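Ops channel
N.P.: pipeline sanity check, posting one input/output pair.
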């Protein structure tokens, strides 16, 4: 008698779930959060880029997530230098996907008397 054992390995590329809009405007001095979440099997890892350059998780600007999985960028006090094109890049062993978010930082307007 012969016994067959089948092993099924399921995998799925990363699928974007909860993401910030592709164009976000923030006020200089204000707080802002950029969100980017994805799912997949195996679970995808996330990297953030600004203007095509990898963001350093140890850097203080912007703060890479208060969450354990770094799927949010937190700006506590926006400055004009924070403006740019942010990309969240999700990768797993199957594929990769990304989402671009253009951040515009408007300056404070002085009221004339």
């Amino acid at each position: 008698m012969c016994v067959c054992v089948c092993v099924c390995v399921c995998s799925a590329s990363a699928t974007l779930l909860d993401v910030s809009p592709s164009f976000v405007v923030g006020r200089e001095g204000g707080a802002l959060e950029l969100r980017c979440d994805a799912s997949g099997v195996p679970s995808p890892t996330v990297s953030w880029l600004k203007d095509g350059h990898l963001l350093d998780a140890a850097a203080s600007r912007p703060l890479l997530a208060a969450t354990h999985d770094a799927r949010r960028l937190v700006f506590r006090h926006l400055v004009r230098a924070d403006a740019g094109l942010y990309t969240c890049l999700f990768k797993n062993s199957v594929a990769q996907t990304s989402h671009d978010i253009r951040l515009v930082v408007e300056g404070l307007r002085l009221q004339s008397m």
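N.P.: looks fine end to end. The chain has one domain: 12-106.
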